[in-house]
Design brief:
This protein has helices at 7-20, 32-72, 78-88, 94-103, 105-120. By secondary structure, the protein is mainly α. The protein has one domain: c-terminal domain of poly(a) binding protein (Orthogonal Bundle), CATH 1.10.1900.20. The chain starts with 6 loop residues before the first helix and ends with a helix.
Amino acid sequence: MTRTKRGYIARKRRIKNRLFVSGFRGAHSKLTRTITQQSIRALVSAHQHRDRKKRDFRRLWITRINAAIRGKWASYNYSRFIHNLYKKQLLLNRKILAQIAISNRNCLYIISNEIRKAVAS
């Protein structure tokens, strides 16, 4: 059987892998075997942390809403606020409420006051 020289195609594949890990430190961006290991590891981490990012943002929104609601009234908290939102069937998700809490806090106070009045009566 004749000898196959794998220069062109193998080099092309390695260069493509090297471009993917170009920002990594040390041997992780220099040595071919380490490059393949680190690229696989990076892709696995990226896949896992996409779900983690969603959880983290939801936690952040909840914290922002809670801080804004407790700002004026110590007796009114996040869980009551969300419960009353669902009772009144207002379709505002946590992301929008958190943006309102940051940009226009008075608007959030108006929303919460209206919900309180409606639930109280």
